[in-house]
Write a structure and sequence with these properties.
Length: 464
């Protein structure tokens, strides 16, 4: 509402403008300009959103405190900067390649800019550049308008975000279960464990065509097991091997009970028949989900697995954008839960769109995350704004300096298994540059200039 002093009169204007706390004498003495200045002292005069322009983009790449992660910083002509993370393990060039497409643009036009740059992203780590830039744009917009990012997405469904975490593995089921219990003692209310054929590699007669044996072609000139899609490895688990794997689940459930939802990941690379055997074998332990037991592209096989078992199925951390993979899985109800990583999926808004689409089809929705606290908070905003959200992954529980990378937020960021949604403008955090410097990779400088990426001669149109 606009307040006009000539319409309401001096006293009513001062009251409407929030000056009721000033004394009558103070109002008499102070010039009208000073009174207006007092009333608007908290307005951000450094930001004129319609005149914002992107002037630069730089990278600071860190490791050790988190998986190797390039941090994006976008600069503007009004001094507002925005941050985002390129996905863990991705190349910084995925983001730098986009710089020439962004310079001179208004960062507030997030959706238009996303459509401009999204053609240069792809699945898995290759989506990291577009996603990191998208988060940095939202950070700028929130700061420019003085609102948290979730508000720009239509508001929030929840004030706190439930977090899940996994733990380090052990070949001893009892030690592994104790580590899981320690997570519960820390306050976490949702867990995940990595359980797979690596835990039984030394058990004679547990695996056929084992990638760990000396009578197979793996890691030779013939084929690399790690780079072979699941249906083509022909690795099989024997009854003895399956019993040993289920021992881990049995001991774990005996230790932590059944009140805590618990999912599983990293089972190994094998075909649909072995996946179905595992899924059915786990049913007595009421898992929250089996994650990525098959490559996400194998939609028909995912549907076959899902229909064969009461154990919920889940995939999605390597899928880029709704229309490029999630839509097919959701339309066919090939999995029970979709699990995008906002640092791959296309950023904050695209991740929300995935969740909204899943909600319409009765599909669950979680967040994968394994990078720094900047994009972790970006994921928090996406989760807060999406109705069917379940849990957000926290992959830095054992990294005590992880939270030190950022300032401007109450700590601990994760408390009793939840994150409070920030109410400060943008993503809700700023970088602690002194700590970031400590974890820069060898040879990296803190946000060094990148003029070599200012101009790229290319014609990006996809039609003639």
């Amino acid at each position: 509402m606009s307040i006009h002093p000539h319409k309401y009169g001096r006293r009513k204007f001062l009251k409407a403008a929030g000056l009721g706390g000033l004394s009558l004498a103070g109002m008499t003495v102070a010039p009208m300009e000073d009174q207006i200045a007092y009333a608007t002292q908290h307005v951000n005069r450094n930001s004129s959103p319609s005149k914002l322009k992107i002037t630069d983009m730089r990278i600071a790449e860190i490791s050790g405190v988190v998986f190797r992660t390039p941090i994006v910083r976008i600069y503007t002509n009004q001094g507002i900067v925005g941050h985002g993370d390129v996905r863990d393990g991705a190349a910084k060039e995925y983001a730098l390649f986009l710089k020439s497409r962004l310079l001179g643009e208004n960062p507030c036009n997030v959706e238009r800019l996303f459509k401009k740059i999204s053609q240069f992203g792809h699945h898995a780590r290759q989506g990291g550049g577009v996603s990191g830039v998208e988060m940095a744009l939202w950070d700028i917009v929130g700061k420019a308008y003085g609102v948290p990012v979730y508000q720009l997405l239509g508001g929030k469904y929840r004030d706190k975000i439930r977090v899940y975490c996994d733990t380090t593995t052990s070949s001893d089921p009892h030690e592994y279960a104790q580590r899981m219990q320690e997570r519960i003692d820390m306050g976490y209310t949702a867990l995940k464990m990595d359980i797979g054929i690596g835990l039984i590699k030394d058990v004679p007669g547990a695996l056929i065509n084992s990638p760990y044996g000396d009578k197979t072609p793996w890691d030779s000139e013939y084929r690399d097991y790690r780079l072979t899609k699941h249906p083509f490895t022909r690795t099989q688990i024997t009854e003895k091997g399956m019993d040993k794997l289920m021992e881990f689940l049995d001991v774990m459930r005996s230790k932590i009970g059944y009140e805590i939802p618990m999912g599983t990941d990293h089972w190994g690379h094998f075909g649909v028949n072995e996946a179905i055997k595992i899924a059915k074998a786990t049913e007595p332990y009421t898992l929250a989900y089996i994650e990525d037991i098959m490559p996400w592209q194998e939609t028909d096989q995912w549907k076959e697995i899902t229909q064969s078992t009461s154990t919920p199925t889940q995939t999605g951390e390597d899928i880029y954008m709704l229309d490029n993979g999630f839509k097919g899985l959701i339309d066919r109800h090939a999995v029970d839960i979709v699990h995008p990583d906002p640092n791959t999926a296309g950023g904050i808004l695209e991740t929300k769109k995935i969740g909204d689409y899943a909600s319409k089809h009765g599909i669950g929705f979680m967040h994968h995350h394994a990078a720094g606290p900047v994009s972790f908070l970006g994921a928090v905003h996406s989760a807060a704004a999406t109705e069917n959200f379940m849990w957000l992954e926290h992959h830095a529980v054992d990294k005590p300096r992880w939270e030190d990378l950022v300032t401007g937020i109450e700590k601990p960021i994760v408390k009793d298994g939840y994150v409070t949604v920030p109410e400060t403008p943008g993503l809700g955090v700023e970088l602690n540059e002194e700590v970031v410097k400590e974890f820069l990779i060898d040879g990296e400088k803190l946000f060094a200039p990148t003029p070599e990426w200012d101009e790229i001669r290319a014609w990006d149109r996809l039609w003639s």
